Every structure is written in structure tokens, then in C-alpha cells.
């Protein structure tokens, strides 16, 4: 039986609004899954780092799902992780709470999870969400390297965790090839989509709400502004797409985020003057309007372990043109829910986009295919699979 689970998510709180900084798909994942498990009777406490002394230490998001903020400090990462883990143990002792399973999210939390597993004898599941070696393999010249500490820590966590949770078969293959994950402890559990939030709807109404003109053809890119998201490719594609406009929704993320934003604004001014609209992040509940407003959602990422935006856009009835990289080849069904494009050639993207945007019949076919494909992703299914994995660990 699994009655109580501790999620460790040190560097991103599910209470943070996604779409900029460190807050993105992982926040949505942790929040959606914790809520779904709680509604199934499995209590979840999400431990995250307290960055502001004025915020409450404990927040009940809904019955059975709490966020607990733990203060931690240290001269280096190892100290910080130790201090955070100590804080979690002290909180657990004070609250007199025991967990059946620890589920860590991202490598830093995996590191803390290993310390907690050793100290408390509770089995550990790890979801990395992104992997240092995979990001390193697509790093552009001049971009900062992934730290060796990260890569070493990931390898250690893979070796020690009771269950390594991959989000797609491609993610599992990466964990096997780059980190020698043991096949018997490696599992696939894809993320879901909240179908109450993301469903097809009136495009004209959505365009009014987003504040773009009701006429004309729009494509959209949604997510953190980061070089890995390949937003430059979508902007360059406009050079081959007469009179199409592009909506970019999201804010700077990572050490290079602000510089990337400036680069993209300059590129838009040079490539497609007046045809690119940058909007700051919108509340997660309102992203559906952006998807419904767009004729096509473009996901030209250089690396992506799953791509929640692609899944959400499809659930909203909008075909997706995505990069054939990582988990996107699983999340998007080529020629059924959109198109996958190999490489970073803007002309190839433009060709795929215009096949949808210039042909209403094809757009309708792919829109129906998108809804059908996205129906396969649900947080309920993710919770089912994880509960199976948790039970397996608890039963040894
Ligand atoms: N998102 C949002 N508001 C925004 C931009 C993005 O709520 O303005 C959400 C989006 O709906 C999705 C998540 O942020 O759920 C991004 O997840 P994805 O897996 O696409 O990218 P990641 O951030 O994990 O790289």
C-alpha cells in the first residue's frame, strides 16, 4: 500500500507560475500529479526550497496535497543539499509524518532523495525531467557547459534509486545509454494533460481574449524563453511564410534568458518586421486561449524530454509542428496530430506549417487527430502507472 508520498522539488515550487525563470513543465507536472494522487486518497507533501521568509512554511493546496517550504543554506551545492535534507527530516519529525515513498524531481532533488533514502530507509523514485548529458549533446557553441557535478550526481542517483522514471521511451533509452540505468529499475510513465483545462474551443473568442486580431493566420510558440527552445527557428520560418504572424508567449529563463529574448526581438525585427508579437507569460489556466487562437502551435525545441506544450495544444484541437527530437517524437503523432520536422531548417518548418495553414481540410483532419492523440495523455493514467511503481517499491 502507498498512503503517503513525499515529492522533493527543491528548485521549483508548484506554487510558482510557469512560463519563465525556473518555472515550466516540471512545476505543472508536480502540481498536476500531486493533486491527482491526493484525489485518489494518496497524501502528497511537496518539499521545496523556501526562498522568502515571509511565505508560509506550509500551504494546503487541496485536501491531501500540501507544499512544504524548507529553508536551506550552504557554501556550495553539496552543503545546500545536505542542509535541505536535514530540514526535511526535522520537519517530518516535528510533524510526526512517515512516508511510504520519496519521489524526487530533477537531479538536485534526486541527490537530496538519495540522502533521505539512506537516512530514513524509504524507497526512492526519480524523475529527472531533463538530463545533463542529453542537454550537453545539443549545446550550441558558446553556451555554458553542463556541470560535471550534475552529470556525476545524475549517475549516482540512477545507480541508487529504487525506480528511475522516464517520461517517454526515448528518455528511457537516454537513461540506459548515457547513464547505464538498470533495465529492471527503469520505467516509462508519460506525463498527462488536464483535459478540463485544455479542450477545443472558439478560435475567434480566444483571439479576442489573447488580444490578437481575429483575422489572418497565426502560429504560436509557448514556453520559457531559452536557447534550447529553438524559438529562433520559428521566427526564421516566417521569412518563407507570407502574411503569417507569430505569437511568442513566455518569459526569460536560465542564465542566457534575457540575452536570448533580446536576440529574438532583434531577429524578429530583421526577419519579419511587425509580424511577431511577444507576450509575457500567461496564467496556466489561460494558456488554452493561446492554443485555440493559433492555427498551428510550433515546438522547435533542440531538446525536450516530453513537451507538455505540444500535448496541451493538441488537446486544445490545434495541430503541432514540432522538432523530431527526444520525447516530441512520442508526444506528437507525425501526419496524424501535426508534423515532425528533422533538423533546424526554417524552410522545412515553413513547408510543414503551410501544409496546414494553407489547406483547411488538412487543418481539420490534423485538428481531429490532435484531439484523438492527446486523449491518450491524462494525469489519471500517469497516477495509475506511478502507483503501480510505488507499490512495487514498497513491496520490495
Ligand atoms: N506555461 C504557462 N504559461 C506560459 C507559458 C507556459 O502556464 O505563459 C506552461 C505550459 O502550459 C506548460 C509548461 O508551462 O504546461 C511548459 O512545459 P513544457 O514541457 O512544454 O516545457 P518545459 O518548461 O518543461 O521545458
Description:
- There is one protein chain.
- The protein is of the alpha/beta class and 396 residues long.
- The protein folds into 2 domains: 4-192 and 378-395, 3-Layer(aba) Sandwich (Rossmann fold), CATH 3.40.50.2000; 203-374, 3-Layer(aba) Sandwich (Rossmann fold).
- Helix content is 43%, strand content 17%.
- The protein contains 15 helices and 14 strands.
- The strands form 2 sheets. Strands 3-4-2-1-5-6-7-8 form an 8-stranded mixed beta sheet, sandwiched between helices. Strands 11-10-9-12-13-14 form a 6-stranded parallel beta sheet, with helices on both faces.
- Strand 5, helix 3 and strand 6 (124-127) form a beta-alpha-beta unit.
- The longest helix is centred in the first third of the chain and has 19 residues, at 77-95.
- 53% of the residues are buried.
- The mean pLDDT is 96.
- The structure holds uridine-5'-diphosphate.
- Uridine-5'-diphosphate binds at residues 18-19, 24-26, 28, 222-224, 249-250, 281-282, 284, 287, 306-309, 312.
- Residues 18-19, 24-26, 28, 222-224, 249-250, 281-282, 284, 287, 306-309, 312 line the site of uridine-5'-diphosphate.
Amino acid at each position: 500500500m502507498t498512503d503517503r508520498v513525499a515529492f522533493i522539488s527543491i528548485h521549483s515550487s508548484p506554487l510558482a507560475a510557469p512560463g519563465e525563470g525556473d518555472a515550466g513543465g516540471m512545476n505543472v507536472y508536480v502540481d498536476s500529479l500531486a493533486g491527482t494522487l491526493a484525489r485518489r486518497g494518496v497524501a502528497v507533501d511537496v518539499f521545496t526550497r523556501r526562498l522568502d521568509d515571509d511565505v508560509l512554511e506550509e500551504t494546503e493546496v487541496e485536501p491531501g496535497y500540501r507544499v512544504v517550504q524548507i529553508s536551506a543554506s550552504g557554501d556550495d551545492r553539496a552543503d545546500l543539499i545536505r542542509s535541505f535534507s536535514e530540514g526535511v527530516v526535522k520537519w517530518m519529525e516535528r510533524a510526526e509524518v512517515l512516508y511510504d515513498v520519496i519521489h524526487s524531481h530533477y537531479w538536485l532533488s534526486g541527490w537530496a532523495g538519495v540522502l533521505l533514502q539512506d537516512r530514513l530507509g524509504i524507497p526512492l523514485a526519480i524523475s529527472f525531467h531533463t538530463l545533463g548529458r542529453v542537454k550537453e549533446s545539443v549545446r550550441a557553441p558558446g553556451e555554458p557547459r553542463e556541470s560535471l557535478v550534475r552529470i556525476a550526481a545524475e549517475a549516482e542517483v540512477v545507480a541508487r534509486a529504487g525506480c528511475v522514471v522516464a517520461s517517454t521511451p526515448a528518455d528511457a533509452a537516454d537513461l540506459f545509454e548515457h547513464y547505464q540505468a538498470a533495465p529492471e529499475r527503469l520505467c516509462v510513465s508519460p506525463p498527462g494533460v488536464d483535459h478540463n483545462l485544455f479542450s477545443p474551443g472558439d478560435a475567434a473568442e480566444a483571439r479576442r481574449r489573447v488580444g490578437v486580431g481575429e483575422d489572418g493566420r497565426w502560429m504560436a510558440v509557448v514556453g520559457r524563453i531559452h536557447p534550447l527552445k529553438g524559438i529562433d527557428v520559428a521566427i526564421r520560418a516566417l521569412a518563407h511564410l507570407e502574411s503569417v504572424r507569430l505569437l511568442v508567449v513566455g518569459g526569460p529563463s536560465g542564465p542566457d534568458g534575457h540575452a536570448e529574448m533580446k536576440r529574438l526581438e532583434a531577429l524578429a525585427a530583421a526577419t519579419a518586421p511587425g509580424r511577431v508579437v511577444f507576450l509575457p507569460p500567461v496564467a496556466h489556466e489561460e494558456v488554452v486561449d493561446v492554443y485555440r487562437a493559433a492555427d498551428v502551435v510550433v515546438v522547435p525545441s533542440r531538446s525536450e524530454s516530453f513537451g507538455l506544450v505540444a500535448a496541451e495544444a493538441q488537446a486544445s484541437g490545434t495541430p503541432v509542428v514540432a522538432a523530431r527530437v527526444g520525447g516530441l517524437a512520442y508526444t506528437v503523432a507525425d501526419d496524424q496530430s501535426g508534423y515532425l520536422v528533422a533538423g533546424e531548417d526554417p524552410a522545412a518548418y515553413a513547408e510543414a506549417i503551410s501544409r496546414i495553414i494553407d489547406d483547411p481540410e488538412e487543418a481539420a483532419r490534423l485538428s481531429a487527430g490532435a484531439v484523438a492523440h492527446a486523449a491518450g495523455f491524462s494525469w489519471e493514467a500517469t497516477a495509475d502507472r506511478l502507483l503501480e511503481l510505488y507499490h512495487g517499491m514498497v513491496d520490495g
